[in-house]
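Hi support team,

I've been running sequence recovery on a batch of backbones for a student project. Most finish fine, but this one hangs at about 90% for roughly twenty minutes before it completes. I'm not sure whether the input is malformed or the queue is just slow. I've pasted the C-alpha cells below so you can try to reproduce it. Let me know if you need the job ID as well.

Thanks,
M.K.
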C-alpha cells in the first residue's frame, strides 16, 4: 500500500499567511503541515508517498526532496492546471500505480488511528473506506449518509451561500462529514478519469451507484481542516497541548511551545498554548496568549499579542496590542497602537 497527499491548494482562505508560502508548508509549531501527513502514513507502515502539487510546487519539493530524510520514498505529481480533488488523486496514482493507496487532504491534522482504519478496510473487503468526523450542526461541511452497517449511500454538499450563512449557535444534533482521509483499492483509483473532477460531488456518487463497496467509519478523535486562521490556531493548540502528536519534539515553556532559537525575556509571559517560532524575540513584560508567532518576529517590551497569528518578520512596537488579528509577512505595528481583528 502507498500514500497520496493532496497538497496543491491555493490556500486563499489563509491569506495573508499563504502569500509567501504554500499552505502545506505552513509551520505548525516546529514542523511544516505536510510533515504531519508523512508521520501519519509512516505510522500505518507506508514507505512510498506521492504529493499531488500545484501552487508553489517547487517550494514543496525543495522542502521534502526525495524523502530520504524522513525515511520515505517521495515523488511529486505536479498539475499543469488545477485538477480538483479526484483529478489530483488520479494524477498522483499514475506516478505510483499498481497498489491500493491511503489518500489524505494535505490541510488537515487529526488524532486518528490510521492502522486501525486500514485494518477495518481490509476486514470489510471495501473498495473505498472513508474516515468520517462527527460534527455538531450547524456547520459548513458536506454530510455523508450511512446505513447501519456503515455503507455509504450518498453525499449532500452545502451551497456556498449556505456555508457563508452558518452561525455559531450549536443545536446539539450531529452529522458525519468527510474528514479527507480515504483508503482506496486499485479498482477505485483506476475508475477515476484522467481529467479535472471532484471526488465528493462526482466520483464517489458514481462509484456508489455502480455498486462499489464504499464504507465510512465515524470517529470522534480530534480533527481540524486548516482552512481559516482560526482553524490554524485551533491546530496549534492541539499540537502544543499534545492532543495531536507532533512529528518533531519541541521545547515547552509552561503550557506553550518555544523554539530553541527564540529569545524570550524572563519577565515576558507566553501562555494559553501559544507557539513561538525560530529566531523570535519577545522582550520584557510582553504577553503572548493563544497565538502563533512565526519565524523572525519581534514583540517589543510591554506589547500584547492575543489570539493572533504573526507571519514571518512581523514587528510589534512597545506597549502595542494585537488581538484577534492575522498579520502578513513583515507587517509592523507602531508602539502603543491597538490592532483588533485585522485580517
Amino acid at each position: 500500500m502507498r500514500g497520496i497527499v493532496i497538497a496543491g491548494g491555493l490556500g486563499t482562505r489563509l491569506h495573508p499567511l499563504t502569500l509567501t508560502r504554500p499552505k502545506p508548508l505552513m509551520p505548525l509549531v516546529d514542523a511544516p503541515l505536510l510533515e504531519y501527513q508523512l508521520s501519519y502514513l509512516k505510522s500505518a507502515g507506508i514507505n512510498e508517498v506521492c504529493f499531488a502539487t500545484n501552487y508553489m510546487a517547487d517550494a514543496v519539493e525543495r522542502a521534502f526532496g526525495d524523502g530520504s530524510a524522513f525515511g520515505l520514498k517521495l515523488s511529486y505529481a505536479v498539475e499543469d492546471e488545477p485538477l480538483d480533488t479526484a483529478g489530483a488523486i488520479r494524477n498522483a496514482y499514475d506516478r505510483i500505480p499498481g497498489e491500493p493507496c491511503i489518500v489524505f487532504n494535505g490541510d488537515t491534522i487529526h488524532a486518528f488511528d490510521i492502522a486501525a482504519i486500514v485494518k477495518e478496510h481490509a476486514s470489510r473487503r471495501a473498495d473505498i473506506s472513508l474516515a468520517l468526523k462527527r460534527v455538531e450542526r450547524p456547520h459548513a461541511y458536506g454530510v455523508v449518509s450511512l446505513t447501519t452497517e456503515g455503507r455509504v449511500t450518498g453525499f449532500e454538499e452545502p451551497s456556498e451561500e449556505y456555508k457563508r450563512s452558518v452561525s455559531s449557535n450549536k443545536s446539539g444534533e450531529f452529522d458525519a462529514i468527510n474528514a479527507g482521509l480515504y483508503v482506496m483499492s486499485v479498482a477505485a483509483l483506476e475508475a477515476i478519469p484522467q481529467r479535472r473532477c471532484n471526488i465528493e460531488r462526482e466520483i464517489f456518487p458514481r462509484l456508489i451507484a455502480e455498486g462499489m463497496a464504499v464504507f465510512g467509519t465515524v470517529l470522534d478523535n480530534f480533527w481540524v481542516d486548516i482552512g481559516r486562521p482560526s482553524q490554524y490556531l485551533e491546530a496549534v493548540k492541539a499540537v502544543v497541548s499534545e492532543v495531536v502528536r507532533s512529528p518533531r519534539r519541541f521545547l515547552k515553556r509552561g503550557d506553550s511551545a518555544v523554539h530553541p532559537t527564540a529569545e524570550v525575556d524572563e519577565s515576558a509571559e507566553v501562555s494559553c498554548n501559544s507557539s513561538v517560532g525560530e529566531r523570535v524575540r519577545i522582550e520584557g513584560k510582553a504577553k503572548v496568549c493563544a497565538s502563533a508567532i512565526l519565524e523572525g518576529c519581534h514583540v517589543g517590551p510591554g506589547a500584547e499579542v492575543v489570539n493572533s497569528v504573526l507571519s514571518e518578520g512581523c514587528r510589534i512596537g512597545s506597549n502595542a496590542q494585537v488581538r484577534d488579528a492575522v498579520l502578513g509577512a513583515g507587517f509592523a505595528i507602531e508602539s502603543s497602537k491597538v490592532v483588533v481583528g485585522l485580517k
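--
Follow-up from support: It reproduced on our side and the slowdown came from queue contention, not your input. DSSP finds eight helices and 29 strands in the chain. No action needed from you.
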